[in-house]
């Protein structure tokens, strides 16, 4: 018998996902984190990266979160994301351009503020591309 968790993924703008899941995998500050039924209570910070949701029945959904928090309480897992989107909705060309621009800015940085901003933009663009790769691999397109 498979037991599930209630999963909610919300951003500042809207609720992105709500449903019963067998597993949620997200990227925390300590690395990739999997949450399934019976997980201990937890609150952790998320870094930019993919969020993979395995729904009841085995269907998978991939999302991208730019950072935020993941909370596990009882049989509920909640992702409070700064920004979150379905991986299908990410513009791959725009993410690749942003990654290249950030790499160029890092190579030509003028000060600490420029470096910090470019480094953050590079991490976000790279994480968006990672979410797209997970989606493509799941669909056998990558």
What's the average pLDDT? 83
Helix content: 25-40%
What is the string of helix and strand elements? Answer: EEEEEEEEEHH
Tally of domains: 2
**Terminal residue distance:** 33 Å
**What structural class do you assign from the helix and strand content?**
alpha+beta
The CATH level-2 architecture of the largest domain is identified as Sandwich
By CATH, the topology of the largest domain is ATP Synthase, domain 1
Shape: elongated
Q: Could you name the CATH class of the largest domain?
A: Mainly Beta
Rg over CA atoms: 16 Å
List the helices and strands and how they pair.
Blueprint: E1 5-11, E2 15-28, E3 31-36, E4 42-46, E5 49-55, E6 60-65, E7 68-73, E8 76-81, E9 84-86, H1 92-107, H2 112-138
Parallel strand pairs: 1-8
Antiparallel strand pairs: 1-2, 2-3, 2-5, 4-7, 5-6, 6-9, 7-8
Describe the structure.
This protein is α+β, with helices and mostly antiparallel strands. It contains two helices and nine strands. Strands 1, 2, 3, 4, 5, 6, 7, 8 and 9 form a nine-stranded mixed sheet that branches. Strand 2 and strand 3 (31-36) form a beta hairpin. Helix 1 runs antiparallel to helix 2 (112-138).
Task: Name a few traits of the molecule.
9 strands; ATP Synthase, domain 1; 2 helices; alpha+beta; 142 residues; 2 domains
